[in-house]
Amino acid sequence: MTRSLRYVAFDQLHRDYGVLADARPAEDVIVMVESSAMLRGRDWHPERLFFYRSSARHFAQSLVASGFRVEFLKAASSRAGLLEVKARYPGVTLVVAEQSSFRQRARLADLADETLPNDFFLTPSEVFQSWANSHATHVMEHFYRQQRVRLGVLMEGGSPLGGAWNFDHDNRLPPPKNYQWPEPLQFALDEIDEAVAEEVAYRPSGAWSTTRAGALAQLENFLTQHFAAFGPYEDAMASTSWSMHHSLLSPYLNNGLLHPREVLDAVLERFSRGDIPIASAEGFVRQLIGWREYVHGMYWFQGPQYQEGNGLAATTPLLPLFDDATATSMNCVGSIIRDIDARAWTHHIPRLMVLSNLALLAGVDPQAFLAWMRRRFIDAAEWVMVPNVIGMGLHADGGAMMTKPYAAGGAYIHRMGSYCKDCPYNPKLRIGESACPFTTLYWDFLDRHRATFATNHRMAQQVHGLGRLADLPQVRQRAQVVLRGLAEGRI
Ligand SMILES: Cc1cc2nc3c(=O)[nH]c(=O)nc-3n(C[C@H](O)[C@H](O)[C@H](O)COP(=O)(O)OP(=O)(O)OC[C@H]3O[C@@H](n4cnc5c(N)ncnc54)[C@H](O)[C@@H]3O)c2cc1C
Ligand code: SF4
Fold first, then answer.
1. Which CATH number, 1.10.8.60, 3.40.50.720, 3.40.50.620, 3.30.465.10, labels domain 4-116?
2. Atom of ligand 1 at shortest distance to CA of 389?
């Protein structure tokens, strides 16, 4: 006798959460749908296609091994698959956990007989909504401090452990010289991986595991090899290492193979042994219980229209260099695009301060850039991509998330990265053939949006700087040359 059908979406692959938390092998049938609309609808990076497909197949296999009956369907869409399985089990209750995007929730709304809350995050939606509704502005730092207190993380009595809420002054180091970055883990393909790789006609990089065991190994590797040094170099960019000391956990956190609670517990347990500096522990915890939960909360709080924002009226079509690293001679951008081509990932600072910064300065249409990022990253999910791109990266939400845009010239990339020494451009120059495109476009961007930012006190100093530029007319001219060159793939 079947008690219920339980739908496990491809981003809810955890035995202890969602519809599986109280599922019983003898009574419940697990439903998984490999949707061709999801997998083939966009021009996904093949690494991402492979990762999602193979992780889901491995997970289904693990459920079968633990005694579940699993209906693993291939269908045109998840909706079509669920309709098919419902027809096979007439009268049996279909249980789903809340889907992770507005679109997917709407698509499945009328199919589920029972919908469980999405518990793949540390912050129940009522908690976030209550915080957001009770604050006029939605600054991440305020939310983060409340999270620390609410979850009792790195607290001593009512105060932050170590006497400060953040250790940013310790955590903004450039990449060290002559430093040996640990080699990232490399995962061998098993039989399921090989079959999926053949289907998607792609040789995976081996950087990502498709199993829970591999995800746990990645977590353990972070704790032993990277955690202690995570903080100081979290903002640095090194051309000699694609992964540096980052955890590489986002794909597993986002498809459910790891739950943020287990990552948090593991990190706090490791910290309790006494040899992890507080700056690294706080820096990582801030990402996990702060930024991740904050962008998730903001996605739902801002509503489905948020992703259409274009507060700076940016209309430049997507630059060719985003899909073709040979279409630029900017060493930072070219190297990062090659990293993404290789394994569908680059860390936070290249995403924000190089790729989004370039799109912001060049006035790239936010929706075109958002679509590109969705296609190219292994950890892309609507709830995380939309606030990070529309709010944080492109300031396309009129400042709802960030009080000022993350706009920077070549000096920032030069200070925090190791790309400039091998680049034909000079980060210090804003005019002339050798001027760094970031530096030229930075000043031109401030000039173009002078009126918008004039009333923003956090931008006052930057806008004021424009007044000191004796060569502003030449900067404007050079910016036009750069924008044309970028559009034609010549810069
Ligand atoms: C423009 C832009 C787009 C982004 N798109 C995505 C995306 O599609 N998917 C995604 O998971 N992250 C995204 N991020 C956030 C961040 O870049 C990645 O989470 C991080 O690089 C993943 O690598 P990691 O696991 O090694 O992270 P670490 O540096 O080790 O950080 C630990 C964890 O913190 C979380 N985290 C850190 N920053 C953020 C953030 N801003 N938003 C949400 N979670 C965060 C991630 O879960 C990450 O695994 C984006 C950031 C920017 C600026
Ligand atoms: S000079 Fe400019 S374009 Fe070249 S690597 Fe440095 S920041 Fe990037």
1. 3.40.50.620
2. 1
